[in-house]
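Structure, all two chains, one model.
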Amino acid sequence: MINDLSVGVFVFLFAVFVALGFYGSRWRKGDLRKLKEWGMAGSRIGTFLGWFLLGADIYTAYTFIAVPSSLFAKGSIYFFAAPYVIITYAFAMWAMPKFWKIANDHGYLTVSDFVRSIFNSRLLAISVAIVGIVAELPYIALQIVGMQAVLIALLASNGVVTGIIEISLIVSFIILAAFTWTSGLRGATLGSLLKDALILISIAVVVLAVLAAGGFHSALLSAPKNISYFTLPSSLYNAYWSLFVLSALALYLYPHVINGTLAQTDPARVRKTASLLPLYSIGLGFLAMFGFMIYGVPAALHYVNGFPASIQGTQVVPGLILTLLPSWLSGAALLGIFIGGLVPAAIMAIAAANLFTRNIAKEFYPKMTPHGETRTAQVFAVVFKFLALGFVFIIPATFAIQLQLFGGILILQILPPFVFGMITKKLNKWALWLGLVVGVASGLYMMEAANHFAQWTTTLMATGFGPVFIGLFALLINIAIVLVGTAVANYLGLSNGEEGHTAARQARGRVARTSR
Amino acid sequence: MVKGVYAIIAILLLIPLVVLLDIPSYNSVNPTLFGISFFYWYQMLWMPLGAILFYIAAILWNREEKAGRTVSRRRR
């Protein structure tokens, strides 16, 4: 139920969240004029907070809004999110401690820093940075769609005029911008503690309430018959595994996840944190199932059906919360989802801004001072946030979800320079660059073709083996170009030049000397 | 030569992947749990199971790397 009490609880907890955000600047205090302190919490985050920080990186509006919304509309295929958030951590346990060590040894703050020096290519580094930022923006936009959905649930049913929702969003973004500016990643990390506590309690209560209301079986029985909810149609097997395997590879390529990893204190803790994150996925699993649970709760279904088709899906989780929870708890739960969009939006904007500063701005203004770097990142964190906000006001919500899925296809294209780069230095830089560009272009083309050059509604492409995730093909094309291109370059005797490794070694020498 | 412990780590990390890739093995309604299809609850069961396997792997791996570092330091 929603009433003034829910709104009061929502506003009160939001104030607590903001206070935590500003308090972040004093937590394990460092010189916040340094980029590593502001944008990475000075790598002072241990196992416990690291778990929550990575949790905030990973369980976002994607989990609360996009997955339940898709499962609600398209059925069991979207449960691919569950296996995805298990196996991604196996990859993370290998790749992330490795990258943490490399980054720490050589003073890298981003993937582009690493790519630039190991392959001796500014062009490749800038391209990787651009792909990272472009993939990140729709992810931020998706967070805002989630926050919007919460505000609609909280305010629209009280009969408040629609303009209020836009104004509330803008106000919360100004507050967010203010504390990210002062506290950087520290503020966002502390905020994520509150968010997770609220959300885990709410999930548990909703699940119990659905059980009490008649259980899951009746919900599955009441779901539309023309869409598969009970099990997966065998025609979708290839879609299912390609979605979960490729998504699992993509997650740890996102700038915000890498940034969160480097913010931790040491590689052993990075690995331990990743190994325990599948526990966190249990919440995601239940939230995904909210997508069909709602069919067993007539009041919630009635509420959702009151909205235009384009935003029905985004109201699934808010709808269950406000029909099944007492008013004070629904206020708290909605705030959990609200800051569940806000915290990741802050973290993503910080990561995109770090990338922009280090690998684009600094390439053109190499004389930038360390303090200048931080200032640039602070400014661009604000710019990216408001860009994404503007985006959401222009495009429909369902389209934002598809754009975020397309972002996954884009970010996969940096896998060869980043992941292969950690294994071998023998790949040719031009082949890597061409692979990246063609991978992105072919991903875009396949996305357009699969959607018949109309509005994007799917990331699956029809093949002789049933629908398959486009990201798989785009990545395979990319890898093929990298391998063939490297073979051709080797045959022609072209090399990447020597600068990379020696420069890195010199940098390591410098770091070692200064640290002594 | 790959040490035996790395083989164990690799197996621990790969078990959930192999299990979950075998979609036909869990794509059924029965046995249900609280009315939820096997398809859903079985995959969710692998979240805690995965965490246990991964955690053991992380402990083994971290210990192995720590041992490796002390050896190389002594050699220096």
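DSSP finds two helices and no strands in chain B.
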